[in-house]
Amino acid sequence: MIRFLAGRVAQAVLLLIVVSAGVFALAALAPGDYFAALRSDPRVDPAAIETLRTRYGLDRPVEVRYGVWLAGAVRGDFGVSLAYNMPVTELLAPRVGKSLALASAAWALGWVSALVLALGAALRPGGLIDKLTSWLVSTLLVLPELLLASVLVLVAARTGILRLGGFGLALLTLAPGVVPVLLRHARAALKEAAEATFVEAARARGIAGRRLWVMYIFPAAANPLISLFGMSFAGVLSASLVVEAVTGWPGIGPLFLDSIAGRDFYVVTVVTLLMAALLAAGNLAADAMLYALDPRLRTPQ
Amino acid sequence: MRARAGWKLAAGVLAGMYAAVLGAGYLAPYDATEQHREAPLRAPAAMQFERGRLVVADAISGRKVAVHWFSGGHLFGAEAPALYFPLGSDEFGRDQFSRILYGGRISLMAALLGAMVSLGLGLAAGLMSALGPVWLDAVLMRLGEVCLALPWLYLLLGVRAFLPLDLSPEAVFVVFVVLAGMLGWARPARLFRGLGLSLKQAGYVEASRGFGASRWYVARRHMLSELRGVVGTQGALLVPQFLLAEVTLSLFGLGINEPGVSWGTMLDVVRQPAMLAMNPWLAMPVLVLVPVFLCFQVCADAMAR
After folding, report:
1. Which of A100, A114, A165, B293 stands 20 to 30 A from B75 (CA)?
2. Both B166 and B192 in a single domain?
3. Contact between chains at A30 and B163 (C-beta distance less than 8 A)
4. What is the per-residue pLDDT across A247-293, written as a single tens digit (0 to 9) for each?
5. What is the least distance, in Å, from the CA of B246 to any CA of chain A?
6. In sequence order, what are the beta bridge partners of A280?
7. CA–CA min distance B7, chain A (Å)
8. Inter-chain touch A268–B145, beta carbons under 8 Å
């Protein structure tokens, strides 16, 4: 177990280093920087801009900058936001909390409703819930989040039932987009497990009811769903970016978009890395759970 | 049988949409950038039937004027100086209907081309991984992992962050297609690799190899024909995803920008709640996305079978 996880952690760290190097390489190739706007302002002395660039280390070659940044990052110093003139970690910390709160709430809501509905559908194939979920999946899948966002923002602006920039509005916009993908997979996994030959064999031996579901069907259905666990969180984070920016929830989404437009380099880098780290952590957690639950992974082939 | 008919209908609707946006020059009553400052923010207005002919209310005076068909190089319109905006106008008095058609040209084409690039790269990488030497497989799959290391939208935005912001609409179009194509190849590539590996075990492929067929021949002759359905399904799933990516990027001012028009640029009204609350029809392009998504979904389901 330990060795397996250690290997995965090492892989994830390596991946993060590659991603950060990639970001720095891209930045080196990119035209213009944060000071481009200042430079076009005739009232600003070019020498002053050069001083600023030197102070922030932007005049040094990219590999040196990367080395300095990496050495700092190991100690928890991830650079400075040029637009806000404060350490990136300080700038991001409260926003990351807000984003994570929103994303995890939507994600948890999505999983719970998906699992409950999928179970209802699998318990009675062809029943009302089965038909309802099938309809729900195909409907929600084709409704773009932006449509929901527009409608809810409209409702919020017109009636004041929902507050713009509030948690309720953001969650209501984000959650319905999470459900269909999860529901579709949960439904397929449970159905497949319930129709498997070993379940039939168990039935033939007289095992039925709760015991059949808990001991036979759930463990078999869990496998594909756990792999989806980490990945689905990444999906929620991606969707959350748009939802935050549209509904005005003060998470990392709006900040990230601003920092791209403003060429606030270290903020872009750190947010990118943070996303990669979250995704890696999600996949790692899924791997660990699979390893703990699925005996096939533990026995060497 | 029913599913088959649905599939044909969906494909027909999509073909019609693509034809409509390509024929925007004729179907749209106005140019996408033509401003009528004297008639801003008009609500959508339907044609009315009156005394045996179709009439519309002039957007400036409100007087009823006859609709002109097939004149002046356009399908329909009100005779100047009267103005007719079937789906309303924006704050500069630009016709929303015309803008949706011209904008769809950019959005739908960018999504289609981006998906094609992605699919082509994914197919090439997947089959090379499955059939090629082990080292190539390792290199390609590690590269793919880097592309999958980030949530897709963050990846696209992260790379977009380092391209110039003030690009012309044409340049953005090309950049989007190339960028989305290059960043989106990894997931299809993994799928194709897996399918390629299992096909490699198939008796007829092994027999073909035994008769001395080259890898290239096997890829072309056996795998491509076998994978046709999966490629189609993947394509039908990728296009809506790329469409959404274009809309999102443009919505936040990182994609197509003024004076270029796409569904994303039109939808930036979603970020101005006050404007949206007063003039909800400005968010119309988002309604157009629904049938597009639906049709692609139906096609993907049909091909997956």
Report:
1. B293
2. yes
3. yes
4. 889 999 999 998 888 888 889 889 989 988 888 888 888 888 888 87
5. 12
6. none
7. 15
8. no
The structural domain count of chain B equals: 2
Average pLDDT value over all residues in chain B: 87
Q: Is B273 on the interface with A (CB under 8 A)?
A: yes
Of the two residues B229 and A98, the one the predictor is more confident about is A98
Interchain contact, A15 vs B289, CB within 8 Å: no
Which CATH number fits the domain that encloses residue B159? Answer: 1.10.3720.10
Q: Does residue A262 lie in a domain region?
A: no
How many domains does one find in chain A?
A: 2
Q: Is residue A265 included in any domain, yes or no?
A: no
The pTM assigned to this predicted structure is 0.88
Same domain assignment for residues A9 and A33: yes
Considering only the beta carbons, identify the residue of A27, A138, A245 that sits closest to B271: A245
Is residue B61 in a domain? yes
Taking only the tens place, the pLDDT of each residue in B75-93 is 888 877 788 898 989 889 8
Instruction: State whether B116 and B175 are in the same domain.
Output: yes
Domain containing residue B148: 96-304
Residue B4 has pLDDT above 70, yes or no: no
- Non-local (6+) Cβ contacts of A127 within 8 A are A120, A121
Residues B176, B282: one domain?
yes
**Does residue A92 lie in a domain region?**
no
